[in-house]
Write a structure and sequence with these properties.
The protein is 36% helix and 15% strand. The chain is α/β, with parallel strands linked by helices. It has a seven-stranded mixed sheet with strand order 2-1-3-4-7-6-5. It is globular and about 45 Å long.
């Protein structure tokens, strides 16, 4: 508990030091808005619900609402944590690729969620190869600190959308095996967390509705809280 308290204190301190000198000292998650391909706008209450969970379970200064930003927006540097949904055929422009690379290299963090099957996986690899060609997307072992930054994540759970969850189906588009993945830079800092064959955002969106099974909702919340706390304290 003492170690986790120290991490929480470090996180609270980090919140006063956003990527730009004039950023607000309260934690929020910025939803990344982009033009090409996927549904960046999906699950509108998912991030606010996640922020509520962090606020209720920690003493961290957390906003009640998400931010919304594009890669070309000057406000990008005010948000150390980006959330991006990848359902569909996401395509970033050359300018966006350069901008996202700079963001990650300067200390920003990206949570990439909600893409399924081999076609979308190949597209995700293609986009990240443009952004950080020198680094690989790798499966993260459950011993990685990100899975123990606040709560203990002890298994890789496939988190389905609400409609599949009600039918007892967890996969889409042939994406049967879930993966919790990441990209580390040359110094070993995790710059991106990638939930492959999962829809964490749908679980965050529906967690308070009894139609969504708790066995998927709680693991999704544990992952979300841990990733935010890890990213902001590293």
């Amino acid at each position: 508990m003492a170690a986790r308290a120290l991490r929480a204190l470090a996180l609270a301190t980090a919140l006063t030091l956003p990527l730009s000198a004039a950023g607000a000292p309260r934690l929020t998650v910025a939803r990344l808005q982009y033009d090409g391909g996927g549904d960046w706008y999906a699950n509108p209450s998912s991030i606010p619900n996640l922020l509520t969970a962090i606020r209720e379970r920690t003493s961290l200064p957390v906003e009640r609402t998400e931010a919304r930003v594009t890669l070309m927006d000057d406000k990008l540097w005010d948000y150390p944590f980006l959330h991006m949904t990848g359902h569909g055929n996401v395509k970033l422009s050359d300018a966006e690729v350069v901008r996202l690379r700079e963001y990650l290299m300067r200390g920003g963090f990206l949570f990439f969620d909600d893409f399924w099957g081999e076609y979308e996986w190949e597209n995700v690899q293609e986009q990240f190869h443009k952004i950080v060609p020198e680094y690989e997307i790798k499966d993260l072992p459950l011993s990685h600190p990100i899975f123990h930054s606040y709560l203990d994540v002890e298994e890789v759970v496939q988190v389905p959308n609400v409609y599949n969850a009600q039918r007892g189906v967890t996969s889409e588009k042939g994406g049967i095996v879930p993966h919790y993945m990441g990209i580390e830079n040359k110094n070993g800092r995790l710059v991106a967390f990638i939930s492959r064959n999962c829809d964490m955002g749908d679980a965050w969106e529906w967690i308070n509705d009894p139609v969504y099974p708790v066995k998927y909702g709680l693991p999704a919340y544990k992952v979300g809280i841990n990733v935010v706390i890890y990213a902001m304290s590293h």
